[in-house]
Hints:
The chain is an alpha+beta fold. Helices cover about 45% and strands about 20% of the residues. Strands 1-4-5-9-8-7-6 form a seven-stranded mixed β-sheet, sandwiched between helices. A two-stranded antiparallel ribbon has the order 2-3. Helix 1 packs parallel to helix 4 and helix 3 packs antiparallel against helix 4. The protein is rod-shaped and about 130 Å long. The structure holds 3,4-dihydroxyphenylalanine (DAH). 3,4-dihydroxyphenylalanine binds next to strand 8 and strand 9.
Amino acid sequence: MKQLLEKxxxxxxxxxxxxxKIEDLxxxxxxxxxxxxxxxxxxxxxxxxxxxxxxxxxxxxxxxRAIIEEKLNEKKEAVQNALMNEKLKKEVIDVTMPGKKCDMxxxxxxxxxxxxxxxxxxxxxxxxxxxxxxxxxxxxxxxxNIPKNHPARDTQDTFYINxxxxxxxxxxxxxxxxxxxxxxPIRVISPGRVFRSDAVDATHSPVFHQIxxxxxxxxxxxxxLKGTLELFMKRLYGxxxxxxxxxxxxxxxxxxxxxxxxxFVCGGKGCRVCKKEGFIEVLGAGMVHPKVLKxxxxxxxxxSGFAFGIGLERIVMRSYNIDDMRHLYENDVRFLKQF
Length: 339
Ligand code: DAH
């Protein structure tokens, strides 16, 4: 019996050495340790041997069983480790392989710059107002001191929906809506699309963007207007930028001005881009006309205000050195990818 057990043990250890797969280990377990396995049979047969030998053989059989079990577990762990290593080796990632390129969407330059301007003005205490694109003639013209037959209407070739309704030609319409509904102090900007029946070329489009600004309070002066615009331009283009106000006429402001910034190419010396002027026109502005304040229910004896209208496309073109406005609308991916 003892010899048999010794033999079983040796055989088991030898055959375990050759086992490589998990399935081999399972059949090994069945063969030696299973219900009908070799070691189990010896243990079962203990009853038929002489009582004086029984104890010794029983102990030996249990010992052999324990040894086989231990070796089996060791082997199982080794096989599992080997499997895992093999799997890891197969799944290894080569970080030096060229990656797959996926195109990311991004903001249109018009949106980027609009947000930039909104941030600057919000930082100066302005809030953002909105108004409709399909607008009453009253808000777009009449209340802004541009009655029917006023020559200023001719300079803004208007898309009429009917006699009383237009596609707004300027964001100035929002000024009126804000003043009607808000008690001063007022500090708002209003970015949006405007429409004019213009032919498309490098500097014109029937749909373009403006940002309107309006400040109304007691004691607001032209100096406040200039200071506000100067700070805005410096925040946008850096401290070296200079602005220049030229007298102009708008029906809804008095006095009125056109505002230029120093040329981004020559810095004011005069070059081809600014047509030797040294400056480029970017917005219209002025002190809100007393008649307009009155139209909106604000007493011009108590309050005064300034307003301005920025052409967003001009600013974007200056920011990115774009020489043709049409690029901004054609949505050619080769163009948009550059930003
Ligand atoms: N609405 C004018 C335009 O479209 C721009 C403008 C000029 C707006 C003077 C203003 C302003 O608020 O005060 O040409």
